[in-house]
Amino acid sequence: MTLVENLFENLRLELRRGCLTLAVLAQLKQEHYGYTLRKALAARGLEIDENTLYPLLRRLEAQGLLTSEWREEDKRNKRFYRLSADGQEIFVRLLKEWNEINTAIANLL
Amino acid sequence: MELLERYLNAVRRHLPWLRQDDIVAELRANLEAQLEDKEAELDRPLTKAEAEEWLKQLGSPLQVAARYQRQQYLIGPALFPIYSYVLRLVLTWLTVIYVIANAVTIAASNQGGASVLDAALRLPAMWLINAGIITLIFAVIERAGVHFPEKFSGLGPMAGPMTASWSPLDLPPADASGGDWAKPRSFTRALLEVFAGGVFLAWVLLVPHYPYLLFGPGAWYLESLPYRLAPVWWTFYWLVVSINIFELAWKVVDLARGTWQRPQKRARRLAMHALSLAPLCVLLAAPNHVLFLLKNPVADAAAHGATVASANKGVLQAVAVLVAIIVLQLLWGIGRASLDAYRKRQAAM
Fold it and tell me: Do A55 and B63 touch (CB under 8 A)?
């Protein structure tokens, strides 16, 4: 990987990091377990690899933004996540921030 | 699938003990669902090679487990600026204290160059040990912050105690970084410098003939004492005179050439600083470390010999400390000059 490609990759990951949190919070207004959430996000054009998404869900839960419960589905125990009350409030504020940044960038370009 | 089971077991080994069952159970559910989708798509079970390729794409067990660790850094970005500041501060002061303490010890024990070399070689080990201790302390603070975020919410550069009472009014004046020497000089200042330099030189030249100019009324008392200065003081004296003549001549030339308004160059300032070491080094290198002698060694040796020896030792120690301080100031100046030159080069690129 050249220096420019490496730099681009680092900046791309940095740019995506916050966006992924927002996308996960948005998608978890409906209940999902890890794999179906990943599929739902990919279906809407946002691919996230497993090693990013699954630990992210646990971090967001530890921060109180998500709630989870183990439940059996298709004869298999799965951990289902959904947005908590705090998560809903934070999501609304983050979305506002996101829209402002989007508008500002659009004005700049 | 046996390969998936082996993979999950390998991940488990690198996970935090308390949460490993929970994490592996969730990971298994997700990966098995993914595997089912893949097999449904192919309408057959994955071959061993395909399964191997899929698991390789997921990442090594160590990498996968690492993403579940709460702490990703030894010292995180929030704490790092304070850590870096404390580290630099401690190592700088450690070096200053170490150099002064060793200079005094070596001078007091009349040890030679081997002791200086020995002290210099021990310095990196001291840096390493102290840097290690500081790093350990900050790593513990970082860990505490990760595991008990509610108790350590004040950590970090944005909310830390170091910034809570910060005010722009406490900052040093804007011209302090450049120092007085970096400002353009006025003609009056340049003239006054030459005048003051001339008066000082005249005073220095008159002191040997009229000691009361230096010691005041105490000169007559000193005259009555049974001690005298060793010849090395004359070398010291003439070196001081030479340096002052040189500096005065330089200022006169500046004045004559009309270059007095230019700010003093840093290199010139550093050179004069280095030159000021010469007379002190002459004293340090005094033959047999003798700076003071008895006027009548035969008659006064019994009564005053010990006093003279003690004075020689004490003054030499003081000179050694002075030399150490000047050398450190010089190194600091050279370091800052090099850093500024490097910054200018980077800015020009």
Answer: no
Cβ contacts from A onto B, under 8 A: 43
A chain contacts of residue B26, beta-carbon cutoff 8 Å: 34, 54, 78-79
- Owner of token pair 């003798």: B290
Cα distance between residue B331 and residue B328, in whole Å: 5
Residues with Cβ within 8 Å of B85's Cβ and at least 6 positions away in sequence, in order, are: B162
Q: How far is A47 from chain B (nearest CA, A)?
A: 14
Contact A77 B25 (CB under 8 A): yes
Of the candidates A35, A38, A51, the beta carbon closest to that of B67 is on A51
ipTM computed for the complex:
0.85
Query: What ranges do the domains of chain B cover?
Result: 2-66, 80-162, 180-348
Domain boundaries of chain A, sorted by first residue: 3-108
Interface contact A35-B33, CB threshold 8 A: yes
* A58–B68 CB contact, under 8 Å: yes
Does the domain at A3-108 match CATH 3.40.640.10? Answer given as no
Report the candidate in B69, B58, B43, B41 with the shortest Cα–Cα distance to residue B6.
Answer: B58
Q: If you search the block for the tokens 């340049």, which residue do you land on? A: B190
Dist CA B211 CA B195 (whole Å): 23
Residues of chain B with Cβ-Cβ distance to A38 below 8 Å are 30
Tokens encoding B295: 């006027």
Interatomic CA distance for residues B187 and B321, integer angstroms: 37
Q: For every one of its 349 residues, what pLDDT tens digit does chain B have, with 9 covering 90 and above?
A: 788 999 999 999 999 888 899 999 999 999 999 999 999 988 898 888 999 999 999 999 998 998 888 767 788 888 888 898 889 888 888 887 887 777 777 766 666 667 778 888 888 988 999 999 999 999 998 888 877 766 665 554 445 545 556 677 767 666 544 455 556 667 777 778 888 888 888 888 888 888 777 777 777 777 778 888 888 888 998 998 899 888 888 888 877 776 666 656 778 788 888 888 899 998 888 888 888 888 888 888 888 888 888 888 888 888 888 888 888 888 988 898 888 888 888 877 7
